Predict the 3D structure of the following.
Amino acid sequence: MLKEILKILESDARITTKKISTMTGVSKDEVAKAIKQAEKDRTILKYKTVINWDKVEDEQVWALIGVKLTPQKDVGFDSIAERIYRFPQTRTVYLISGTYDLIVLVVCKTSHEIADFVSQKLAPIEGVQETVTQFLLKRYKEDGEIIEGREEVKRQPVTL
Amino acid sequence: MSTNPRKRHGKYYVPQRVNQISPSGIRRFFDLLASIEGVISLGVGEPDFATPWHICEAAISSLEKGYTMYTSNSGMPELRQELSRYLKNSYNLEYDPDSELLITVGVSEALDLAMRATLEPGDEVIMPDPCYVSYKPCVVLAGGTPIMVLANEKTNFEISATDIEARVTSQTKAILIGYPANPTGAVMTREKLAEIAEVAWRHQLLVISDEIYAKLVYGVEHTCFATLPEMKESTILLGGFSKTYAMTGWRIGYAAAPREIIASMTKIHQYTMMCAPTMAQVAAIEALKSGEDSAAKMVEEYNRRRLIIVKGLNNIGLPCFEPRGAFYSFPSIKSTGMTSEEFAERLLVEEKVVVVPGSAFGQCGEGYVRCCYATSLADIEEALSRMKRFVAKHQTA
C-alpha cells in the first residue's frame, strides 16, 4: 500500500490525500497515517518541484565533479563523503563504481565560484586524490521530464 | 466530349449492401465539434500515452537497416513465433505459428476477415447490444445478418447464455463477443463465458472473440474464450497491440484460430492486404519480447484514473456501474431526461466536454454516454467539474 501511495506522490507531490484514497481504495485516514509515518522515518525526504531554470533569468552554473579518494581505515569513504556533502553548494553526492569514487553535483552562481569551491574547499580535503570538473552545458531531461521538444501530439477528439 | 444524357450520379454506383449500413450516428456531432475551441475530450478510443520508446526505437532501427519490403502474407515468422509463445505464456494455449496465426492490419482487419472467411449469405451472427461499432457492419458486408442480444446495466452489460440460446435459429452461424467491452468497460466472468461456450458447443456455433482489451483489466482476471473446454477448435481469437502497448496508429493485430479458418482468412488477406506493415510488425515483436513493464505501468495509471472518474461520475449524479476493463466508463444520463445524443451535444455546446452518446453503440446504449478515461488526470477532473455544473442545471428528478 505504501509503495502505491509513494508512486502517486512521486509524480505529483501536491495531490490530496482524498484523491490518493480514491485511487488506491485505502481510506483517507490510513493514507494520511502512512504519509505521516513515511515523513517521520524519512522514507519521504521532502516535497519539491522540478523546475526548468533555463526559463528563468537566474544565472546558475552546474558542474558534475568526479572525485577520486583514498579510502580511510574503518570508515572507508563515508567520512570524506560527509566532509564534502556538508557543503551547501553540493546538491547531490553519490558513491559510484568506475574511474571515480564520488560524483558530486555542484550548483553555484558563476563558474568562478565553482572554481573556488573545487580549488579551495574540495581538493584540499585530506583523502581527496583527484578531481575532474565537468561543466553542464545543456539539460535535456530533468528528473524524468523531457525539457524541450516535447510536442503535444493531437489525438482525434472522437474515435469509436 | 458532349454531355451524356444518360450521365449517372455517384450514388448510382453504390450497392444496396453498403447503402443499408447507416453511417456512424454521430456525424453531425463531429461537424459541431470542429467549430468549437477549448474542448476537453472524453470521447477518444485510444491511449493518451505515446508508444513506449523502446518499441518505436526498434521500428526506427529496422527502417535504418532497410526492412522496408513485404513480409510473408501471414506475417514475419519471428513475430508469429513470439505471438505463439505469448499466447502460451498468457493462457497456456498452443497455436502453431505456421498455420494457426495470422498477423493483420489491426483487429479491425482481423474482424472483417473473420466474417468474410466464415459467413455464407444469410448466416446469422449473434452479438451483444451495445457493442463496438464495427461488429454489425462487418457482418452485413460479409453477407450475414446481425442478431442483437440485449445487455443492460441490470446484468452489468454482460450478455447471458440463455438470451443467446433463445435467438439461435437454423441460420445461426456464430456468436461475436468482445470483452472487456467497448463501450461499457464490462468484463465477463469465466463462469458466464463458460455458459456461452456450452450454448456454442450445443449448437455447433463458431465464436469470434475480440479480446483487444485483454490486458486492460483491473482487479479481475481476463478469461480468454479459447481456453474454455472444447472451445479452441471453434473460436477465432482476435487480439492486437493498439490498446495494450499504445500502438493504435501502427495498425497491427492478429487472429488465432483453427488452421482451416486461418487458411481461409489468409486467402482474403493475401489478395486484399498482402501483409501488415513491416515496420509495425517489427515494433510488435519488440512489444511482445519486452513490452510487459511499459504495459503494466500504463495499466497502473489507467486504474487510478478509473477510480477517480467512476467515483466522480457517481458523485455528480450520473450513476455509473464499476467498469473492470478497457478504459471506458458508461454512466447513465437518464436523470437529465435527455436522449444520449442530446446530452452529448448539449454538453459539448454548453460546457465544451466531449462524450460519446451510448446510442452510437446500439439501442441498449440509449440513456448512457461513454466517457473514456485514457486522458490526463487534470483533464478528467476538469471535465468532471464541468459536467457537474451541467447535470445540476438539467437534472429533472
Observations:
- Residues 2 and 34 of chain A are 7 Å apart (CA to CA).
